[in-house]
Amino acid sequence: MKINKKFFLFLFVILGIFMITSCKKDNNENEEHDNGDIRYELEEDGQSYYVSYFDPFVKNVKIPDEYNGLPITIISEEAIRKANNIESLTLSKNIVDIYDWDLSYFVNLKYLNVDKDNPKYESINNCNAIFEKGTNTLAFGCANTTIPNGTKVIGEGAFSNCQTLKNIEIPNSVVSIEHNAFYRCINLESIVIPDSVTYIGASTFSRCENLSSVTLSCNLTSIEGGLFSGCRLLESITIPDTVTKIGSLAFDCCSNLKNIIIPDSVNEIGERAFSFCTNLESVQLSKNLSEIDMETFKSCNSLKSIIIPEGVEKIDFQAFNNCSSLEYIQLPKTLKTLDWDVFGGCSNLKELVLPDGLKSIGNHSFSGCSSLESLIIPESVTYMGQFLFEGCPNLTIYCEADYMPDSWQITWNSTNLPVVWGFEE
């Protein structure tokens, strides 16, 4: 049977047309539209566009209201990554979400503006910032921002990662600074918080590595978690006597902090609040604490002495671990519990008096206290954990109990240090 060549040619053409049409359809679903310095992509619902790309050399950007008859509502993270040369940015009336923006990419941003018809955001008095409309909340700023008087709130992450910000004045109309507001502003050098401010959110100044001068509002009631964590140049700070709580990691890794006075208004200090403050030499604790939380002063290598006030009943896990210069610590008569590894690695600790009334000593509590030569264990102690005195080669232990209580761990004296039972002073 003869094959009709014309028939096969016809089939080939039809197949080619089908494949080309199919490819065009697929491509249109993710079509990127180039409009000079800006590119747009259609959202999945087909109802709006988003900015997908900025020309990396563009300096002045004004987002249009629409593209192809549909609103432009979002600037994508991918586009923001190309924003390093943008100096001036004007948002259209349809941009409705800016909270995922990372200011670290806007390293040259100097001017910010918003279309007056935007229903969610506004600009005020050419201050080079974006505000949530009608709320007096500053949502997004830049290194050139002047915070206008009348601003009530500096919003979450408003200046986060603004790496060119060095100084900024906060007006006395501001009452609240939300968390992460100045996070990782690595060149911020000083800040004065006016007395109008009653709240500063967690991690607000975390990782501001060049921040060396801070004045806090006299009306704060708390130092929130991570507030100054990683502020390596901060040497001193005055905590106002209105503060009742210092949160976890509040001053963690403030490696140049030398002295701290915690006012008696404070009744709670969170875990790791001052950990790795390696130059901290002097600490005055509040008289109204009931507990020293876990790792509070861990690796404060320059701390030589400290007095734990009466009223404290528990010193938690690793609270003074690796305080290698600590020579003297005064414990309160109210103390009931020493948790795990509290003084582990305190290699210069020479003198320690455990109070009558102490009931529990956790595992490894004195391991690595190589300078400790004698220690009296009060008769009140009903629990001794494991491996308490490893790395204490010069220590003699004096126990007021006549013999080892059944509730003590068998390995409490795992290194077989000399023990005197039935000791009386």
Topology (SSEs and partners):
Elements: H1 5-29, E1 32-35, E2 38-42, E3 49-54, E4 60-62, E5 66-67, E6 70-75, H2 77-80, E7 88-91, E8 111-114, E9 121-122, E10 130-132, E11 137-140, E12 153-154, E13 176-177, E14 190-192, E15 199-200, E16 213-215, E17 222-223, E18 245-246, E19 259-261, E20 268-269, E21 282-284, E22 291-292, E23 305-307, E24 314-315, E25 328-330, E26 337-338, E27 360-361, E28 374-377, E29 383-384, E30 396-399, E31 419-420
Parallel strand pairs: 3-6, 4-7, 7-8, 11-12, 12-13, 13-15, 14-16, 17-18, 18-20, 19-21, 22-24, 23-25, 24-26, 26-27, 27-29, 28-30, 30-31
Antiparallel strand pairs: 1-2, 2-3, 5-6, 9-10, 10-11
How would you summarize this macromolecular structure in one to three sentences?
With 425 residues, the chain is mainly beta. Helix content is 7%, strand content 22%. It has two helices and 31 strands.
Can you put this structure into words, describing what you see?
This protein is mostly beta strands and 425 residues long. The protein has a domain at 336-425. The protein is 7% helix and 22% strand. It has 2 helices and 31 strands. The strands form 9 sheets. It has a 6-stranded mixed β-sheet, with no helix packed on it. It has a 5-stranded mixed β-sheet with strand order 1-2-3-6-5. The chain has a 5-stranded parallel β-sheet with strand order 22-24-26-27-29, with no helix packed on it. Strand 9 (121-122) and strand 10 form a beta hairpin. It is elongated, with a radius of gyration of 32 Å. The protein starts with a helix and ends in a 5-residue tail after the last strand. The model is unreliable at 17-30 (pLDDT under 50).
